[in-house]
């Protein structure tokens, strides 16, 4: 068991006020030099509270990750304590957080959730409001008509969901899967139409200033309607079905770079809005060997910040999404397009990804969730294609999956360690005085970083997806830096303790499988998903910076450095892995996706109704 936050404090209380001060100070100090005693041993972090700690608590004993984990446990407890267990409390929590009455059908939603033993915390649904609120600034009729006209569409009529697309379903199973997802709740829905994004990439970036105008309209419309004026039924789509709307063209931009299209969605004073546009990707990648900004001594402390391109302009040259996506088809026009993932600056409405609804073992990992922790290899495994965008001779060194594989390739690190003038084309190592890595301390027994990495790392691409000829799995332009390995089913990857998860062309569809496994996901991403508000970083998964500069620190914290006698935190890793699995089985089930979709679509249906400002649900007789 992890030390709980409350018990951590009581242990400090035992040790007196001086210790508290030291710990608090320690939070802000950067480590100046390596000190083995700074690393809490596994037994210390896991020690029962009743026993007096063998060593005194001083700042150096607190690894920054310990502190982040303690805080995550506290955040998680706060979140879970908000659970609502009956309709009345759920409606109250809704109104307190959203400032209006819940949509019509809220009682059915609650019963559906309760029937499926779903844990209900209002915060779990924040994403829905981030996605939908701007649409209060757009007339309901326009939303209905645009959705109705869109070529890829799921319609609900008389409690029956039907998909439509002009792409053969064998090529793109997404519409069929989403149709099935919507069907799981269709009997509780009014008639509605959903425009569906069938591409991997997200596609709407409305300028921040425009969204801000819509959000002002949303806040002006927000009110609690007197119950006797409340309309508790949805209207019908009869008129729309009898008189199909005029064709709506969102005006797709397909030419140009994506970064300039994307940054208009960032706040005016954000670093990305102010950054220069990069066009030449033959330069060395914009990487720093110091700690990532606003990290806690190098480790991700604010996951929203760490995964936000608006706050990290260097990502325009470090992520395939911006360097060169496979396809761009982007519009500035806000219209109700549903999709499975998006960047923070995109304006799509998120559904749980279709990949998470399929039983295809390629995404889900199948029925196997891995053996008990103790039977796993004390190693990290990564297998995947070098996707992320169109990598070519002049830009491959900027792609995230390439970078990750190189950074934990012992041979490529050894070249840096042994050849003073050598520069790796696609990564840098952390500075010597950061992360206190045992392997990098002069005189610490010279095994070096590369030899240590070799003890735990097994990462390789299964296909390098070269351009212009994608047929052979390898390319002339980066052949010296990569070899390819055989693909490995997820179930076999679960024989390893550590599972990094890195974005491909968009989010990584394996993530839900990883969370539900007995192994530990280590996640870096710039993408948003439906489940973000129900997962707590450092509690259910380990967050990683998009530069991956923290990967060595993370791995040393968990696996230690056996050659140098440094113990890791194996039991902490196991706890996060198993806490994540238990939590996934509670809040990421297909039933939970249905509960999310039902809430989302009731809310969306209200937005599509001309009477939306006076629509809502209220307990009879309650004002
Ligand atoms: C909830 O379960 C009851 C009993 O099985 C069933 O009659 C009812 O239709 C269900 N309601 C919803 C909204 O799922
Ligand atoms: C639902 O739609 C499908 C496909 O159009 C159709 O075959 C089926 O009969 C419909 N079911 C109901 C209950 O309307
Ligand atoms: C985390 O970062 C986001 C994005 O920059 C910011 O809005 C939020 O206030 C930060 N949270 C904390 C607790 O600092
Ligand atoms: C970092 O440490 C290594 C190993 O001790 C040493 O060879 C190298 O010169 C150091 N680099 C810097 C910039 O201090
Ligand atoms: C690791 O790096 C070396 C040298 O850069 C390269 O030859 C090898 O193929 C790489 N291994 C993998 C798995 O990519």
Question: Would you kindly provide a written description of the structure presented here, covering whatever features stand out?
Answer:
It is a single chain. A hairpin with a 2-residue loop joins strand 1 (153-157) and strand 2 (160-164). 35% of the residues lie in helices and 8% in strands. The longest helix is centred in the C-terminal third of the chain and has 18 residues, at 570-587. Among the domains are: 93-254 and 329-357 and 593-613, no CATH class; 376-590, Rossmann fold. The protein is α/β, with parallel strands linked by helices and 623 residues long. Bound molecules: 2-acetamido-2-deoxy-beta-D-glucopyranose (NAG) (5 copies).
Question: Descriptors for this entry?
Answer:
Rossmann fold, membrane, 5-stranded parallel sheet, alpha/beta, 5-stranded mixed sheet, 8% strand, Glycosyltransferase family 90 protein, 10 strands, 623 residues, binds 2-acetamido-2-deoxy-beta-D-glucopyranose
User: If helices are DSSP runs of H or I spanning 4 or more residues, what is the number of helices?
Assistant: 24
The first-to-last residue Cα distance is 46 Å
Bound compounds, each kind once, are: 2-acetamido-2-deoxy-beta-D-glucopyranose
Strand order of the largest sheet: 2-1-3-4-5
CATH architecture of the domain at 376-590: 3-Layer(aba) Sandwich
The level of helicity is 25-40%
Indicate the mean pLDDT: 89
**β-strand number:** 10
- Specify the CATH class of the domain at 376-590: Alpha Beta
Rg from Cα = 25 Å
- Strand fraction equals 5-15%
Secondary structural class = alpha/beta
Main pleated-sheet profile? 5 strands, mixed
* Low-confidence residue ranges: 1-60
General form: globular
CATH topology of the domain at 376-590: Rossmann fold
InterPro entries: CAP10, O-Glucosyltr/Glycosyltrsf_90
Domain Glycosyl transferase CAP10: 305-611
Transmembrane segments: 12-30
Protein name: Glycosyltransferase family 90 protein
